[in-house]
Amino acid sequence: MSKTCTIIIVVNFFILGGAAVFIAWLADRIKFPQFDIDQAALNSFNFTNDNIFSVNFIFIIRSHNIDSKYTIFYDHIAVSVYHENYSLAYETLGHFAENDRRDDIVFTSHPTAKNVLIKDDHVAENIRNESKLRHVDFEVMIRVFVRFEKKGWNRKQYLLKSMCSPVVIDLHTGKSIKRTDCYLDNYTIEK
């Protein structure tokens, strides 16, 4: 066998092997769930002249499993509320549920801000101005530990961080003006 034939065979082997690895990676690539806030509401909204903020939030959050290959297990869910990146409220839901392939799950979160002092004058002024206009914009961060499982085979656990913004709540009605889509801010592999 000539040198040229040997080189062609080796090159083809590497090309076919690389293509096989790439196809296997594409076939097994995990698609993370998508989140959105179907509805947001608040009650007991109070913002004092000395920048003390209190409110009870209610968020109805939908998770959509777009990966037909895996069942998703939600081991821990945390919902945080911000205004211009200033932390206002937080709630941990703990272990929640499993999301079968292509299904949606809906969960409700009730973060509460109780006598939170807004130290940033710019943020306080913006909350005050938005309150006068009778609608306030918030950002909601959803952090969730998820495990992907396929017929009893556990995959790595991921920490997903999804940002939902803006969540606009009308102070007249105490409800959100529209549904808010969330985007995957980042993720890390935990195990």
Automatic annotation (TrEMBL):
Main localisation:
membrane
User: RNA-binding among the record's keywords?
Assistant: no
Subcellular location, record wording: Membrane
UniProt record, GO biological process:
defense response to other organism
Instruction: Please provide, in alphabetical order, the Gene Ontology terms of the cellular component aspect for this entry.
Output: plasma membrane
Residue stretches spanning the membrane: 6-27
Entry superkingdom: Eukaryota
| Keyword annotations from UniProtKB, A to Z | Membrane, Transmembrane, Transmembrane helix
Q: What is this protein called?
A: Late embryogenesis abundant protein LEA-2 subgroup domain-containing protein
- What is the protein's species of origin? Saponaria officinalis
Classification from the root reads:
Eukaryota, Viridiplantae, Streptophyta, Embryophyta, Tracheophyta
